[in-house]
Amino acid sequence: MTLSVDNISYSYNKGLPTECEALRGVSFRAESGILSVIGHTGSGKSTLAQHLNALIIPQSGSVTVDGADTSGSPAEVRSVRKKVGLVFQYPEQQIFAESVEEEISFAPKNWGLDEEGVKKSVAEALAAVSLSAEFLPLQPHNLSGGQKRKIAIASVIAAKPSYLVLDEPTAGLDCVSARELEALLAKFAAEGMGIIHITHDVELALRISSEILILEEGRVVFCGAPEECAKFLCSAPVKGLVLPDVLELSKRLASSGVVDKLEWSAEALLERLKEKWRARTK
């Protein structure tokens, strides 16, 4: 199971005076786990997200999903779109159905499942986002922001994609709803789904990701593990990205020799300081 992006480039209004280059030679691989793509506003994150399930076709380079090319035959494109679910930023704004059941059942019906298959997919998708069957007859627009976000995600995973691409999934959510969504992403990843998580939130990316890719002006400037990403961000400023407060403090403590490892969570940094204190007082 591999989603492969090879040297893709894309410009809006190509050939016109208003041409804007959004992606420049972007390459990476995504499998299971959570890959977070971070970058400033206008770095190309959303454009990249839409390339991953063939909503946008690269003007050069290629995107392949388990061997199927997004610029290939209609059958290949259909395969890509079934395997790669895309959840847009503020997905609740795209909810169109009169009931939760109708909203979630749209994708499995569209992929040709019979009535029993659709009911099973709807039930499994609803359970996957930790909502009960009591929600099925409700009108989505009357639900809370966090519940709407879960319904939007359930409507995508009802088609059982191998990969889930989410564009700023926690944007606009309160802290409790955002944490619930983070737990869902971790659960999906643990079950073997490949998660491509688009965000500008550095601390969130460091906390939940198995790998992080940084875009700057449409180019990949870093791709690697969270620990290496923290080192990179502390050594080379990236346009529009601000170090989380705890990482900034950790950086200063490390440069002073107080700690020997960068941390981005308050709990981990506090534990590191306790270890140093215990070692010095023995």
Question: Brief description of this entry?
Answer:
It comes from Synergistes jonesii. The protein has 282 residues and is an alpha/beta fold. It has 10 helices and 10 strands.
Structural write-up:
It is a single chain. The protein is an alpha/beta fold and 282 residues long. The protein has two domains: 3-235, P-loop containing nucleotide triphosphate hydrolases (Rossmann fold, 3-Layer(aba) Sandwich), CATH 3.40.50; 244-281, no CATH class. It is built from ten helices and ten strands. It has a six-stranded mixed sheet, with helices on both faces. Strands 2-1-4-5 form a four-stranded antiparallel sheet, covered by helices on one side. Strand 7 (163-167), helix 6 (175-190) and strand 8 form a beta-alpha-beta unit. The chain is globular, with a radius of gyration of 21 Å. The termini are far apart. It holds the Pfam family ABC_tran. It is found in: Cell membrane. Belongs to the ABC transporter superfamily. It is a peripheral membrane protein.
